[in-house]
Amino acid sequence: EVQLVESGGGLVQPGGSLRLSCAASGFTFSSYWMSWVRQAPGKGLEWVANIKQDGSEKYYVDSVKGRFTISRDNAKNSLYLQMNSLRAEDTAVYYCARADYGDHGDYFDYWGQGTLVTVSS
Amino acid sequence: EIVLTQSPATLSLSPGERATLSCRASQSVSSYLAWYQQKPGQAPRLLIYDASNRATGIPARFSGSGSGTDFTLTISSLEPEDFAVYYCQQRSNWPGFTFGPGTKVDIK
Fold this sequence. Notes:
The complex is a heterodimer of chains A (121) and B (108). Chain A has strands at 3-7, 10-12, 18-25, 33-39, 45-51, 58-60, 68-73, 78-83, 92-100, 107-111, 115-119. With 121 residues, chain A is an all-beta fold. Chain A starts with a strand and ends with a strand. Chain A contains no helices and eleven strands. Chain B has 108 residues and is mostly beta strands. In chain B, the strands form two sheets. In chain B, strands 2, 4, 5, 6, 9, 10 and 11 form a seven-stranded mixed β-sheet that branches. Chain B is globular and about 35 Å long.
């Protein structure tokens, strides 16, 4: 059974940093693109970042470029999101998602339960 | 940036009725479109990918159609568990992805 379990969320002040983790199991982690998708309270979904199987390619939504860094450790079956210079508008539930289908992992076929990040003073 | 719009914002129907949800793209996304279902407090679930392909384990009452800029998700006969929010998502301008604002299907 595919499982994705996020951790690391919490309350942080504006300008602060947080590192999210996602532990994967039940599939060959190193074979899939992986992504972070977020959802602000009561709002819709927003793709944040994705990373290639070997970590050689990483892409970000414009609003987080230069502040967030996605990474992975295939030996530990883990995905990470380092978030720096956090802003109030980064407040959201952050989901770890496996990307599958197509040439680059075009859709998100498995999701974690999410971890809440709240940026507030 | 490709913008997705969904209509209606809310669809009020009874169990057993047919639901028709629309997703429109600001420019052509070919067939690179997916549909997701999200229930309160839960993560989204992939229903349809590449406009018309059902994801693993998705019941046959869910179907997708369309190409270019206009897409439809149809639920042939609503079950009680189908009342949820539905999002479309495009990957045409990969490596970026965008989601639509969602359509809420609630019980009439």
